[in-house]
Amino acid sequence: MSILAGKSALVTGGSRGMGRAISLALARAGADLAVNYASSRSSAEDLCAEIRSMGRRAVALRADLSEPESARGLAREAMDALGGISILVSNAGVGDIRAIDQVDESTWDRTHNLNLKAAFLLSQAVVPGMRAAKWGRLIYIASTAAQTGGIVGPHYASSKAGLIGLAHSYASLLAREGITANAIAMALVETDMLKAAPNVKPGVVPVGRFGEPDEIARAAVLLAETGYITGQTININGGVYFS
Questions:
Q1: What pLDDT tens digit does each residue of the chain (243 aa) get?
Q2: Gap between the Cα atoms of 62 and 83, Å rounded
Q3: Catalytic residue among 156, 170, 228, 241
């Protein structure tokens, strides 16, 4: 029987791109899914139908994670729908490319609210159930920008660095309770965010190509299934950054 059979996962930004790949991979590994989306309802519903065809439970839940109360509401809905959340994958994010002098306060706040604060609020909401069950997985989708600065701007790099710090803190505090916390730092994966930067070419990646969402999804499943990895940043970046 799969390690993840009977476990329930919440994937934010789960209806498209990398989130979709992660949701499908977790379902194939045995987990039930709460798929969060912001605007792509039809994509989320189609994905849930595909997951249900595997014999898993799946529910599509809308939430604008740039709004703190919406993030709190999402956690409540997901736990109510699936009877608790065993695995949190904080994947939803925004990364508008801005020059230094174009990063205003509203851009900073929206980026940090969506990329970092929502991850914190969702974690705080699901961790009590994980502690009661003595089993849980917190997985944060970070970025190589957290390690190198990247090309998007300081608002994005700092929000993703915060996710790594969040993983470190939860890992150190919860390791003895059967709960792991890790980050995946990826670079230039084929997603909508990358499509918004048409001037970025595969040649900037040492391996000569962009990453695929399924490559990130496989790492997410590894972290969900493995209780002996915690406090780590899994770097999937084609050689952009050596750790």
A1: 689 999 999 999 999 999 999 999 999 999 999 999 999 899 999 999 999 999 999 999 999 999 999 999 999 999 999 999 999 999 999 988 899 999 999 999 999 999 999 999 999 999 999 999 999 999 999 999 999 999 899 999 999 999 999 999 999 999 999 999 999 999 888 877 666 667 778 888 999 998 999 999 999 999 999 999 999 999 999 999 998
A2: 18
A3: 156
Instruction: Please provide residue 89's backbone torsions phi and psi, each rounded to the nearest 5 degrees.
Output: -115, 105
Instruction: Please answer whether residues 66 and 108 qualify as being in contact, where contact means their C-beta atoms are separated by less than 8 angstroms.
Output: no
**Whats the size of the chain, residue-wise?**
243
- Buried-exposed string 181-216: b where 16+ CB fall within 10 A, e elsewhere: bbbbbbbbbbbebbeeeeeeeeeebeeeebbebeeb
| Measured distance CA(186)–CA(144) in Å, rounded | 6
Q: Which two tokens mark 198?
A: 């048409």
All structural domains of the chain: 8-236 (3.40.50.720)
Contacts (Cβ under 8 Å, ≥6 apart) of 152: 95, 96, 97, 98, 145
- Tokens found for residue 179: 């709960």
Residue by residue, DSSP assigns 8-51 as EEEETT-SSHHHHHHHHHHHHTT-EEEEEESS-HHHHHHHHHHH
Task: Indicate if 170 belongs to the active site.
Answer: no
